[in-house]
Write a structure and sequence with these properties.
The complex is a heterodimer of chains A (about 220) and B (about 200).
Chain A lengths: L2 H11 L5 H13 L1 H16 L11 H13 L8 H7 L4 H30 L8 H9 L4 H19 L4 H24 L4 H26 L1
Helix pairs in contact in A: 2-3, 6-8, 6-10, 8-9, 8-10, 9-10
Chain B lengths: L3 H4 L4 H11 L3 H23 L2 H17 L10 H19 L36 H9 L3 H12 L4 H8 L3 H32 L2
Helix pairs in contact in B: 2-3, 3-4, 3-5, 3-7, 4-5, 6-9, 7-9, 8-9
Classes of the chains: A mainly alpha (about 220), B mainly alpha (about 200).
């Protein structure tokens, strides 16, 4: 077997199915450093390929778009009456009309869910409700901090009621907070962009849904 | 795919998620998505070498899957079902774009160009030890579409040649031939990358 014959046979033998040719192949490889290096390098490429599996992460927009589609097709079904109001946000005509003032409303929903959790998990604590609501109306800078405080209360509730899901909620909270922050940054740069406001509203909605899910579990 | 982990039945947690998704549970859908998104998206990205296209295709694959989730009975692994669907979504997309899914040079005999190159013995350019993932990603992205499809399906995703032949509509022999040529091309691309990297410090002097 020479070098050309060896390379010609590599394609057929790559899955090791032609054992009778292996002896000839091995004999040539022992005497030919060039072909030996070639085979070693091809094997290295093949064995390295698996590191490309599952190595990339899609952007959050993939899930966001997917979720919207699932809701529109009725595959995600409202679990409680309050969610039917949220689903109406996806009606294009209404969404464009309510866009700017629905963002603080969605944030207030989030705050209300957090207050409920705080009252149930720490009865001796006093929720800072009034100044927080005013802040949300006029200055959205504090809502993330408020959301952060509510996050702690939520996680405390999850730890008590559904400890097995703590890791999932932690990760989901992290992602949705990132989503909110990214959306707020876009709104800050493009204050007249309806799509940017819509994205921010959807981000708050997602967080509100996360709280609702946790509350659902608590009440069950 | 003959990966044993792919062929076992869905694990109990996933089975619960599937049942909840069948009843419209948003959390279950998202949990299933989170569990499999990297695998699906990476497959789409490797096959298309385009981030936006890969995201659209990943979304489409999951959407098709979730539409059919009510029919999933658990006879095979959920991941196998999802993966096969994802591959079909990508291949359909490539066909629509009139991109060659597999090269048609099955009967082409080996030429001088296919003979072992004289430079592959250069020690400083030899591929030894391990291959950097980013370099390999870049090289795969530079492959011709037909070679890339076969390489991704076989070496990256683990499909056998008989499965690939069915998926892409070629013969087993063609699949083997394309795979070998893909690996040879990758070898060439990786060596070029290393040569470029080795020359960089000299050009800045």
């Amino acid at each position: 077997m020479n070098c050309v014959e060896l390379q010609a046979s590599l394609a057929e033998m790559e899955d090791g199915s032609r054992a009778e040719h292996l002896a000839h192949l091995q004999a040539h490889l022992k005497t030919c450093p060039a072909c030996s290096a070639l085979v070693a390098e091809l094997n290295l490429i093949a064995s390295s390929a698996a590191q490309l599996r599952s190595c990339d992460e899609p952007s959050p927009r993939v899930w966001n778009s997917l979720e919207i589609a699932l809701r529109q097709e009725g595959l995600i079904r409202p679990q409680r009456a309050s969610r039917s109001r949220l689903s109406s946000f996806h009606t294009p005509a209404l969404a464009s009309k309510w866009m700017r003032w629905m963002v603080p409303v969605a944030a207030a929903l989030l705050l209300a869910a957090g207050i409920y959790v705080r009252q149930n998990s720490a009865p001796h604590q006093v929720a800072m409700v009034a100044p927080a609501v005013h802040d949300l109306q006029g200055n959205s800078q504090d809502d993330i901090q408020l959301a952060g405080l509510n996050d702690d209360d939520l996680m405390q509730e999850v730890a008590q009621q559904s400890p097995a899901l703590r890791a999932e909620y932690t990760e989901s909270l992290r992602r949705v907070n990132e989503y909110i922050q990214d959306a707020k940054n876009v709104v800050a740069l493009n204050p007249n962009d309806e799509d940017a406001h819509r994205s921010l509203m959807e981000a708050y909605q997602q967080k509100a849904m996360l709280f609702e899910l946790a509350l659902d579990r608590s009440m069950q | 795919m003959t990966d044993p982990e792919q062929r076992k039945a869905s694990d109990p947690n996933e089975a619960e998620l599937i049942e909840r998704a069948k009843h419209g549970d948003a959390w279950a859908f998202q949990a299933l998505y989170d569990k499999h998104k990297r695998r699906v998206y990476s497959l789409c990205l490797r096959m298309t070498s385009n981030t936006a296209e890969a995201e659209d295709l990943a979304q489409e694959a999951f959407l098709q899957l979730f539409r059919k989730i009510g029919t999933f009975r658990g006879e095979s692994a959920f991941s196998t079902w999802l993966h096969r669907l994802s591959v079909n979504v990508v291949l359909m997309h490539l066909r629509k774009k009139s991109l060659p899914v597999v090269s048609l040079d099955e009967t082409q005999a080996g030429t001088e160009e296919d003979a072992p190159k004289k430079d592959f013995g250069a020690d400083d350019l030899a591929l030894a030890g391990s291959i950097d993932r980013l370099q390999l990603q870049r090289a795969v992205a530079d492959l011709p579409p037909g070679y890339r499809t076969i390489f991704v399906l076989h070496d990256v995703e683990g499909y056998e040649h008989n499965e690939i032949a069915t998926l892409v509509g070629c013969s087993i022999g063609n699949s083997k031939s394309q795979l070998h040529k893909a690996r040879m091309k990758l070898r060439e691309l990786l060596k070029m990358q290393r040569a470029e990297k080795a020359e960089e410090p000299e050009s800045r002097r």
